[in-house]
Amino acid sequence: MKTPAVTITRIACAKVRLPFDHGGPPPKFAGVPRTTLDSGWLRVELSSGHVGWGEAYAADLDALCAIVRNRVAPLALGRDPLDAGLMPSLERTLHNMGRSGPVLHALSGLDIALWDLRGKLAGLPLHRLIGGAQRKTVHAYASLLQYYGDCDAVARNVDRSLEAGFGEVKLHERTAEAVAAARNAAGGKTPLMVDTNCAWDPKDAAAEIDRMRASQPFWIEEPTWPPEDLGAMRALRQRTPIAIAAGENAASVLELEEMVRTGAVDWVQPCAIKCGGVSTLLRVAEACRHHPAVGFSPQMAFFGPGFLATLHVLAAQPHDVAIERLFCDLRVMPYRNAVPLENGAFRLPEAPGLGADPDEEMLSAMEGLDA
């Protein structure tokens, strides 16, 4: 076997906790109030000296970094970063540790970092590797965190998001009253999406959506529990004229492709840092090209390398689709200068790979890199 010219020599995971204020009481994540947005940022170093960055969703940062350190890194060290078979081989080797959850999240971060490295080795931005940009800027929609039916808080923060330059708004609310408050604040022309985070039993969902129809939501996201019941979601789609969106909680690329193929949703929403990285986004986007009744709109509520990867993928799509931007004030804003938000849109970075590297001093000031 030919020895690769360049190999992976080190993989480390940074525990990134970004303090935030979303203009209301701390929202609950998994039932616990949280004041930080947490994700793992993977730093992958090559024998050539190139460094790539990825991002992984972190239900628990200690657990995620332990999986990267003890399971993923030993299998990837010494391997060729350009080998198309690398990620499938890791996924298969680790399959008996779980086909979803933290293992897949860790692999998602590695996949993003490898695409960053491919671009850097080729001297090309990611969008050039995947077909080229169809646009130089990608507009964003403001994704508001949950205010638990507090209509005043909803209206106030919709106003703030529009003043900040966003032209579309997404809520994380579950009541028709909160959605109506948002519509009154936004006016009649602003696209308004509603994410219920799997709030309703399938037998109740159609009636709940019907209560929101007067507010003209553009889509209802994650309407039913459990989210993997695609039959129930497809039946709901047939019962309501409001578009249905889902995919953030999909456990595999195959589930996402099935959502598209069977018409379970109007908009499919793979999350790069959860479902397999850039490689999965590209596969789902290709599925949507074969089934144009389903739109491609990746979920991305974080601020690291996964956001940059999603930005490149969206810029390369034939249809102009907004990128999700969590609307909150961060104590530290990653990539503020390299990829600024201007008039509700992001300009596509043109540097090789993802187009920007994180501030390693910022990461060290948190908890450093867990090698």
What topology emerges from the helices and strands here?
Blueprint lengths: L7 E14 L6 E2 L2 E2 L2 E11 L4 E7 L3 H16 L9 H8 L8 H21 L3 H4 L7 E7 L7 H13 L5 E3 L4 H11 L5 E4 L6 H11 L6 E3 L8 H10 L3 E4 L6 H9 L5 E2 L3 H4 L1 H14 L4 E2 L8 H11 L7 E4 L2 E2 L10 E2 L2 E3 L12 H7 L2 E2 L1
Parallel strand pairs: 6-7, 6-13, 7-8, 8-9, 9-10, 10-11, 11-12
Antiparallel strand pairs: 1-4, 1-14, 1-17, 2-3, 4-5, 6-16, 15-16
Helix pairs in contact: 1-3, 5-6, 6-7, 9-11, 11-12
How is this structure best described in words?
By secondary structure, the protein is of the alpha/beta class. The chain has 2 domains: 8-123, 2-Layer Sandwich (Enolase-like, domain 1), CATH 3.30.390.10; 128-347, TIM Barrel, CATH 3.20.20.120. 37% of the residues lie in helices and 20% in strands. The protein contains 13 helices and 17 strands. The protein has helices at residues 61-76, 86-93, 102-122, 126-129, 151-163, 176-186, 202-212, 230-239, 253-261, 272-275, 277-290, 305-315, 360-366, and strands spanning 8-21, 28-29, 32-33, 36-46, 51-57, 137-143, 169-171, 192-195, 219-221, 243-246, 267-268, 295-296, 323-326, 329-330, 341-342, 345-347, 369-370. Strands 6, 7, 8, 9, 10, 11, 12, 13, 15 and 16 form a 10-stranded mixed beta sheet that branches. Helix 11 (277-290) runs parallel beside helix 12. The protein starts with 7 loop residues before the first strand and ends with a strand. The model has no long low-confidence stretch (mean pLDDT 95).
